[in-house]
Amino acid sequence: MLAIQAIVTFSFALLVSAHNVVLPPYGRRCFFEELNQGDELSVSFQFGDRDPQSSTQLTGDFLLYEPSGRDILKSFRDVSHGEATITAPSKGKYQYCFGNDGSNIQTKDVTFNVHGVVWIDLDDPHSDTLDTAVRKLSKLIKEVEDEQSYIVIRERTHRNTAESTNDRVKWWSIFQLGVVAVNSLFQIYYLKRFFEVTSMV
């Protein structure tokens, strides 16, 4: 019995897959995962903008449905990033969707990682085997990699914001310099005319 359980446990390795998709204006993208009862599904995500000139942090919705599609197990509304984890209450096809329902932006995308289907025995807190420790370490490393990919998106957005601000400051400074130059020329002209001597013939 223990041998069969060990074989089944090892056959459900931690599957991690990373994706990046563009969200349609006023639409959504949905994906499916087949889960058995007791399986764990973890999805982490970050909304971004494919426009390299954009300096706005975009937001969106995340919904995770049970197999019948009627009940929502997890939902995030108008967020820039997040993570949802569930333990499947029953066997079936679980659907999760990323929504852009309230926006007509055509360059909004979402980067997400599915930390896969994890057989429940692998994360037993009372387990003290080397295999369990290696799998937990692998899961933590993947979470760090995911966070680093999200930081890249945030850095791009913040860099675009800084460059946009620098451009505005530059043009405002040029405008101020022009105003000062025009004002100086006007004052010279006005004072010159003020001190001119007019003679009557």
Give the arrangement of secondary structure elements.
Elements (H helix, E strand, L loop, with lengths): L1 H10 L5 E6 L5 E8 L4 E10 L10 E6 L6 E8 L1 E7 L4 E8 L8 E11 L11 H65 L7
Antiparallel strand pairs: 1-8, 2-7, 3-6, 3-8, 4-5, 4-7
Q: Any overview of this molecule?
A:
The chain crosses the membrane at residues 171-191. It is found in: Endomembrane system; Membrane. The protein has a single domain (2-156), classed as Jelly Rolls (Sandwich), CATH 2.60.120. The chain is 37% helix and 32% strand. The chain has two helices and eight strands. The protein has helices spanning 2-11, 130-194; strands spanning 17-22, 28-35, 40-49, 60-65, 72-79, 81-87, 92-99, 108-118. Strand 4 (60-65) and strand 5 (72-79) form a beta hairpin. Mean pLDDT is 82; it is low at 1-15.
Give a concise summary.
37% of the residues lie in helices and 32% in strands.
| % residues in beta strands | 25-35%
Low-confidence stretches: 1-15
Count up the helices: 2
- The CATH class, by name, is Mainly Beta
Output the structural class.
alpha+beta
CATH architecture: Sandwich
Which outline best applies? elongated
Q: How far apart, in Å, are the first and last alpha carbons?
A: 127 Å
| Helix/strand order | HEEEEEEEEH
Biggest sheet, in brief? 4 strands, antiparallel
Spatial strand sequence of the major β-sheet:
1-8-3-6
Cα-atom Rg, whole angstroms? Answer: 30 Å
How many DSSP E strands? Answer: 8
Oligomer: single chain
